[in-house]
Amino acid sequence: MKVKKSKNIVLSFDLDNTLINNRDGIVASFNYALNKHNLPILEKTEIEHMIGTPLNEMFDSVSNYDSSKLVIAFREYYGTKGIYQASVLPGIKSKLKELYELPFTLGIITSKKQEMAKRILEILKIQKYFDYIIGETENTKELGKLDPKLKLMLEKNYPEYYIIIIGDHPKDVILSNNLNCPFIGVLTGNHSAEQLKAIKKGKVQIINSVSDLTIDLILSLI
């Protein structure tokens, strides 16, 4: 496949720890929620290791308290303070611009609430590069990025396109398995190359960061 036809390739990115660093905002929001409901707060590293997992699952893994109440408290803090603690990972802005202009079709599938993800991208001034931003909604909050409806939606909107999932988390790998498409793992999160490769069915490449993406690497998966 020649580069001039690369618009037929969809690069679908995870958000946290793949494109942005929002660890401080997530940690502060998580502990705010725990503290508000008189639960013990956690060490930063404990929370960071869970990033990429839906919020209700994060809270369920550390407490028997009603996770829906904790999620509300988390978003109370995150929506006013935590959201502004995010930053684009090094080299990502220039790489997104390069990929967009080649041109590839770029999108995002995240465990974040969809409207919140859109706000973050606007604050960081990178929303213009993405054709779609898919996150948690009322219809997808139970299964998040692993909702089977995602496959149907992508097949409908991007027929005869090659889709590649890019992310740092095992759930991103599982998403690529569910979509039966290649996966590019990045090591800017909390999971090793071995952990990501261990659950991948099909084509996979591992790189240190999205900033290391190259045309040759992308086309090698098609």
Write up this protein.
The chain has 222 residues and is of the alpha/beta class. Helices cover 39% and strands 17% of the residues. It contains 10 helices and 8 strands. It has helices spanning 23-36, 44-48, 55-60, 67-78, 92-101, 114-123, 149-157, 170-179, 193-198, 215-219, and strands at residues 9-13, 20-21, 87-88, 105-113, 132-136, 162-167, 183-186, 204-207. Helix 1 (23-36) crosses helix 4 (67-78).
For this entry, give a set of tags.
alpha/beta; DNA polymerase, domain 1; 2 domains; 8 strands
Whole-number total of structural domains: 2
Helix content: 25-40%
**Form type:** globular
Largest beta sheet: strand ordering: 5-4-1-6-7-8
Distance between the termini: 8 Å
- List the total number of helices: 10
CATH class (first level) name of the largest domain: Alpha Beta
Largest sheet: 6 strands, parallel
**Beta-strand content bin:** 15-25%
Output the radius of gyration. Answer: 17 Å
